[in-house]
Amino acid sequence: MKKKYIGAGAALIVTASIMAGCGGNSSPGASSPAASQAPAASSASSGTDKPFAGQTVTLVTANHPWSDAITPLLPEFEAATGIKVKVENYFEDQLTQKLTVQFTAGSETPDVFMYRPLQDGQLFFKNGWVAPLDDYAHKDAEYDFADISASAVNTTTIDGKLAGIPIITERGVLYYRKDLLEQANIPVPKTMDELVEAAKKLHNPSAEMYGFVARGQRSPLVTQLASYIFSEGGDYITDGKASINTPEAVKAMTTYGNLLKDSGPPGVLNMSWPQAFGIFAQGKVAFLTDADSLYTNATDPEKSTISDKVGFALFPAGAAGSRPVNVTAWALSINERSKNKDAAWELIQWATNKENVLKAQQKGNPGARTSVWDNPEGSKSFPEELVPIIKESMQNGVGHDRPVVVSVGEARDAVGEVVMKVITGETDVQGAADKANANLQAIIDKDSRR
Fold this sequence. Notes:
There is one protein chain. By secondary structure, the chain is an alpha/beta fold. The protein folds into two domains: 13-169 and 328-396, 3-Layer(aba) Sandwich (D-Maltodextrin-Binding Protein, domain 2); 170-325 and 402-448, D-Maltodextrin-Binding Protein, domain 2. It is 40% helix and 14% strand. The model is unreliable at 1-47 (pLDDT under 50). Residues 25-49, 360-380 are annotated as: Disordered.
């Protein structure tokens, strides 16, 4: 049965209440606003076209621009299906905590939840908290699941099962200052060696101008380090074994650490993405490598003093070429214990159909549908220079950005420790990598016994 979600005047139910059984240690980050009205419904959305009428679905989202884009559209979905949607919105760390507590307690809610596949996916799926979506995704030809990027789907696939539907994708790219490169007659770096050399030339601490910045905190840096490792031909885990002490990985970690040590601003060890983008946006840094999904932090005039001077380039090539991360940063899934799985899928299918992915992407949320990226209307809200870089990176990128294990936090700390030692001047990088590799292998072995 084809469903045309064309809207009606049903009101969206929004709740900011703390989920049952979670205690009072943290409160919701924010409640997403909803449109008070939707366009009038046609006769196509009445009667037997509402098989789920009267059901209520709880949707838990992160405090994220995607939820800001999709929530005002929910009255259309409610009107077309008769399903009431309760929305709970949390800051990122609160979200993981809430979901973990709920699922551990065996709660039937939330029905649908937004989550980070590479951070939480292994834990959620292997604990039996996630309902596989394979049958749902292929049931309706009009949904066109094949239109969703294969690499994005790879990120949300665990043990051959589809654990979630991608909603936000991101890739590693190079941000740079067009004006500084022009003034110094330096071409845009295409290789890692060229980036290192250009960063050194533009590094002038006495004038508060720094050559390079990126995440320097132990855990946050790992997701950005991945593009360096892949581009050198390495990986965190190879054939089930830790591989961060290989020549390729050691070279990548040394390059990343030395860029921050030799050409970075003060305090890099305390920088995650907000701090890195912050100092770049203040006009004090020539180069930044980070996720393309965060571009507005550099290009929005309200956030950036150099908004009209920012350039974008493919991630610099290493020995294996340019192989940036190309991952699903956020996805939607269904609680295995939900009593409303069919209605929950109806919500996910609606939120991730071509029309709504287009609407969300027009507000700057990089989605996973190929047809939307190929549609000029789907890319016009992104910087013109960035769009072809996104498309090319989707083709040559790698579908993970951290060790794919259950104990992600421990694994990230093990890897990040090596780079921190490089930043602080450790000379025996191989020794540090060997130790970290042993720690990562112990984590892999522990997780395999779960």
